[in-house]
Task: inverse folding
RNA sequence: GGGUCUAUGGCGCAGCCAGGUAGCGCUCAGGACUCUUAAUCCUGCUGUCGUGGGUUCGAAUCCCUCUAGACCCGCCA
C-alpha cells in the first residue's frame, strides 16, 4: 500500500468536510500509507474505482453508480442495502472530489414468476406478465411493479438516500438500449456459446437472449425469440408453452414480430441486460449479491467484448440471512423490510448496519440487532466527538475508520454536537413499565436518573422506537424463578401489606422495604432482587421507592401477592 | 456439478477486506461497599483465534491446503 498517495488522495485532502473526520489522515505507524478518505471500505472502493477509471482513460466528470431494484416481490432490507451501499460509494467519491450520482433502476419489466406468499392468488393469472403491466393487488399504485418499487423507494427516502429513479419500462419504451440490443442480437450465437462455456447454461445456444412481450397475451418468457432480422431490427417470436419456477405456463400460440427500438415491448435476458444498461447509462459502479454472481460475470464479458464498454467496478456482498441462517425469503411471512426496521431503529442504525462492512454473511434479526446497532451508533458518536475509547488511541487507521463510519451513517452530514445517549434497552425497559402517557413519563424518569439533562425531540423519538420494541418483543420476565424461603415470604407479605395501606412517600416505601426485610430475617439484597424480578423480570432496576410510587402501590402489591401465594 | 461465506473464552459476537499487546456483551463464581441512580468497583473462568503450511521483523488479519457447517447458482430472472 505504498502507492496510495496520488492525485485522488490529493483531491481528497483538498475537499472540505466537517473538519473532524479528516483528523485521522496521518500516517499509520507501520508506515504502510495514509488513510484514504474516511478510512472505510467505501473509501477504499471509491479510490480503486477512480484509479481504474483513470487507467481506462475515461472521463470522470460525472460518475454514475447504479442499483437495481427488484420489483417482483416485497423488497427486503437486502434490496435497500444494494442501493444504500451504492450511495455510500457515491458519497465516498464525492469526498475524494468527484461528482457522482446514484441511479436507482427498477426492473419492472421482469415477469412475475411466482405469486409471493401472502399475496392474493388471483395474481396467478398474471404469471409471466411484466410486473408493470399487472394491476396493483392493493389498488394504490398504477401496477404491481409500481407498488413494490414504491416500498423500496419509500425506504430510501426515509433513510435519506438520494437517487435518480429509472424504470425498465420507460427505458425500453424509449428505445434507450436499442443500439446495445442490436449489437447483442447480431452476435447472439457467439454470446450463447460463451454463456455455455462460462456458466454451463446452454439455453442461449438455442434461443436469443431477448424476451419479447407477446402482443396477444402480454406474457414474457412464453414468447420465444426465434430469429433476429438485422435490417428490420426486429425479432420474430412464437408464444409457446414453457416451464417457469417449476410450473408449466401456457403460451397462447401467437406468432409475432417485435421491434427492439421501443416500438414493441420486450427486454433482454438478465445474462446480457446489465451489460446493455451499463453501456447505455455509462455506469461505473454496481454492487451485486452473490446470488447473481454468474450473471455479472457474463455481463462483464458482454460489456467488454460485445459492446466495447469496460464494465463497472463491482463489489460483491452476501445475502442477509435471518436468525435461523436461512436466506431472507421474499415471501410475505418473514420479510425484513426497511419499514419494519424503522419501527424500532433509527435511519442511522440501518445505515450503520449497511456501512459497517460489506464482506461476510450476517444473520440479521430486529430483536438482536436493533438494540446493539442503536448503541453502537452512540459509541461511534462519542469517538467522533472526541471521547475516544482507549483501545483506538494508538491506532490512527482504526480511529479514522470509526469516525468515518459515523460520518457515513450520517450520510456525511453529521450533527453539530452529540445527542443525549440513552441505552436502548434501558429505554425499552422503562417503556415496558410505562405504557400509558409513555413519552412523558419515560422522559421524566430519564431526567430523574440524570441520564439526560433535558427533554429533547431525539430522546422522545428514541422512547417511541424503544417503546415499539418493548411492545413487540415483550419478554415475560415473570417466569424466572425466585428462591422464596420462609423469611423471604414473610418479608414480601409484609411489604405487600405496607403497600396496601397506600400512604407511603417514595422514601417511606424504600425504607419500608428495607425494614421489612431486616425484621423478617431476610437479606435486603435478596429482597430487592426478588422485587425486581417480580416487577420487571430482571434482577436489577431503578431505585425501588420512587419506582413503586410511580407505577402504583396497589398494583405492585397485587403483583407480589399473585407471585408469592 | 459450479461458487461464496463462516469457524475467536461457558454462551453470543467484534476485530479480518488498510498486518503491530486478543477484545466486547452476557452468564457464572468469589470479593469490596453495613438500603441499589439503570448501583459501582475488583478478581477469576489459564482463549492451540477450526487444521496444516507459506509470506513477513511481526499474522486472528494476507496467500495456499485440508476439515466442518451454512448459503447461493444449476439452463428462472
Result:
Amino acid at each position: 500500500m505504498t502507492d496510495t498517495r496520488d492525485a485522488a488522495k490529493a483531491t481528497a485532502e483538498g475537499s472540505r468536510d466537517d473538519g473532524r473526520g479528516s483528523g485521522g489522515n496521518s500516517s499509520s505507524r507501520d508506515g504502510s500509507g495514509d488513510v484514504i478518505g474516511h478510512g472505510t471500505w467505501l473509501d477504499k472502493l471509491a479510490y480503486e474505482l477512480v484509479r481504474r477509471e483513470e487507467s481506462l482513460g475515461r472521463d470522470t466528470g460525472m460518475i454514475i453508480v447504479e442499483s437495481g431494484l427488484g420489483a417482483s416481490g416485497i423488497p427486503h432490507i437486502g434490496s435497500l442495502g444494494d442501493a444504500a451501499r451504492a450511495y455510500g460509494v457515491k458519497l465516498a467519491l464525492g469526498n475524494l472530489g468527484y461528482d457522482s450520482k446514484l441511479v436507482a433502476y427498477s426492473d419492472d419489466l421482469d415477469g412475475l414468476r411466482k405469486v409471493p406468499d401472502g399475496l392474493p392468488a388471483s395474481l396467478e393469472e398474471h404469471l409471466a406478465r411484466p410486473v408493470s403491466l399487472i394491476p396493483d393487488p392493493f389498488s394504490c399504485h398504477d401496477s404491481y411493479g409500481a407498488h413494490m418499487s414504491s416500498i423500496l423507494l419509500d425506504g430510501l427516502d426515509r433513510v435519506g438516500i438520494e437517487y435518480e429513479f429509472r424504470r425498465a419500462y420507460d427505458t425500453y419504451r424509449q428505445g434507450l438500449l436499442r443500439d446495445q440490443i442490436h449489437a447483442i442480437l447480431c452476435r447472439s450465437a457467439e454470446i450463447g456459446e460463451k454463456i455455455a462455456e462460462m456458466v454451463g447454461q446452454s439455453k442461449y445456444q438455442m434461443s436469443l437472449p431477448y424476451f419479447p412481450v407477446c402482443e396477444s397475451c402480454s406474457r414474457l418468457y412464453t414468447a420465444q425469440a426465434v430469429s433476429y432480422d438485422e435490417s428490420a431490427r426486429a425479432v420474430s417470436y412464437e408464444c409457446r408453452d414453457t416451464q417457469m419456477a417449476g410450473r408449466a405456463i401456457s403460451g397462447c400460440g401467437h406468432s409475432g414480430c417485435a421491434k427492439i427500438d421501443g416500438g414493441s415491448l420486450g427486454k433482454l435476458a438478465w445474462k446480457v441486460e446489465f451489460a446493455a444498461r451499463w453501456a447505455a447509462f455509462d455506469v461505473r459502479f454496481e454492487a451485486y449479491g452473490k446470488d447473481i454472481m454468474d450473471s455479472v460475470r457474463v455481463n462483464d464479458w458482454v460489456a467488454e467484448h460485445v459492446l466495447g464498454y469496460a464494465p463497472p467496478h463491482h463489489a460483491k456482498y452476501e445475502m442477509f440471512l435471518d436468525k435461523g441462517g436461512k436466506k431472507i425469503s421474499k415471501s410475505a411471512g418473514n420479510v425484513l423490510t426497511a419499514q419494519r426496521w424503522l419501527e424500532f431503529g433509527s435511519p442511522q442504525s440501518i445505515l450503520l448496519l449497511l456501512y459497517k462492512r460489506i464482506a461476510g454473511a450476517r444473520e440479521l434479526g430486529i430483536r438482536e440487532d436493533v438494540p446493539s446497532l442503536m448503541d453502537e451508533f452512540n459509541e461511534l458518536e462519542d469517538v467522533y466527538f472526541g471521547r475516544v475509547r482507549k483501545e483506538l488511541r494508538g491506532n490512527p487507521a482504526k480511529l479514522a475508520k470509526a469516525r468515518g463510519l459515523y460520518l457515513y451513517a450520517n450520510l456525511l452530514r453529521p450533527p453539530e454536537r452529540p445527542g443525549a445517549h440513552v441505552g436502548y434497552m434501558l429505554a425499552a425497559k422503562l417503556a415496558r413499565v410505562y405504557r400509558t402517557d409513555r413519552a412523558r413519563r419515560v422522559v421524566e424518569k430519564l431526567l430523574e436518573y440524570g441520564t439526560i439533562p433535558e427533554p429533547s425531540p431525539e430522546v422522545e423519538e428514541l422512547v417511541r422506537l424503544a417503546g415499539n420494541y418493548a411492545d413487540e418483543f415483550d419478554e415475560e420476565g415473570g417466569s424466572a424463578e425466585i428462591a422464596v424461603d420462609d423469611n423471604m415470604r414473610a418479608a414480601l407479605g409484609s411489604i405487600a401489606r405496607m403497600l396496601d395501606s397506600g400512604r407511603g412517600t417514595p422514601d417511606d416505601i424504600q425504607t419500608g422495604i428495607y425494614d421489612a426485610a431486616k425484621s423478617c430475617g431476610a437479606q435486603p439484597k435478596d429482597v430487592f432482587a426478588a422485587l425486581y424480578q417480580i416487577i420487571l423480570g430482571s434482577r436489577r432496576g431503578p431505585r425501588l421507592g420512587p419506582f413503586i410510587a410511580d407505577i402504583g402501590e396497589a398494583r405492585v402489591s397485587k403483583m407480589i401477592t399473585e407471585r408469592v401465594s
Summary: Chain A is about 45% helix and 10% strand. Confidence is low (pLDDT under 50) at residues 1-33, 325-332, 476-480 of chain A.
